[in-house]
Amino acid sequence: MGYIVRRTWIVGMMSVVLGWVAVAAAMGHGQATDERVVVRVEMGEYYFQVEGHERNEPIVLLAGQPYEIVFANVGMMEHEVLIGRDVVVEEGIPDGYEVNLLDAIEVDVVGEGWEVGTSGFVEVELEAGETVVLHFTLPDEAIGTWEIGCFIPGHYQAGMLAPFVVE
Ligand SMILES: [Cu+2]
């Protein structure tokens, strides 16, 4: 397989997720649609970039909207994707987030003729040239400003991060 998914399994988290989904479905969303919206995020040295936007510009998603997020490493080096808040610093080096946005959300990893559903999704690692496709819907509880970052040593410090906004 072309990438590694690191996950933690949290007992009881599924009921929380199902609760969020029920609330999101009941409330409805002004701009969200039932159609899965495709967003391609390219990664390189040292940036995240959505088509039609500048490098490391904020990435904005809607709560309640089903998404297909395509992460494509178009760079020359390995990169990783984490989305969260509160950077963890280990011995002076940034090393991930205290809180991870997708940790309590059902995420389907799609590709190569197979599909995996998981919760407790923390991180994607992509070698140069690799792509991964994720399906997920963010709940209203996710509304706010997060950050997407790469914590391969030196990359975050080189500026490989961007605001990740859920509206
Ligand atoms: Cu990187």
Q: How would you describe this structure to a colleague?
A:
- This protein is mainly beta.
- It has one domain: Immunoglobulin-like (Sandwich), CATH 2.60.40.
- It is about 10% helix and about 50% strand.
- It has one helix at about 15-25; strands spanning about 5, 35-45, 45-50, 60, 65-75, 80-90, 95-100, 105-110, 115-120, 120-125, 130-135, 145-150, 160-165.
- A hairpin with a 2-residue loop joins strand 8 (about 105-110) and strand 9.
- The radius of gyration is 15 Å and the shape is globular.
- About 30% of the residues are buried.
- Copper (II) ion (CU) binds near residues 46, 150 and 152.
Structure described in brief:
The chain is mainly β and 167 residues long. The chain has one helix spanning 13-27, and strands at 3-7, 37-44, 47-50, 59-61, 66-73, 79-90, 93-100, 107-111, 114-118, 121-126, 131-137, 144-149, 161-166.
Q: Any idea what the shape is?
A: globular
Sheet-strand content, in percent, reads over 45%
Q: What are the segments in which pLDDT stays under 50 over at least 5 consecutive residues?
A: 6-29
The CATH architecture designation is Sandwich
Q: What's the quaternary structure here?
A: single chain
| The CATH homology group name | Cupredoxins -  blue copper proteins
Reading the helices and strands in chain order gives EHEEEEEEEEEEEE
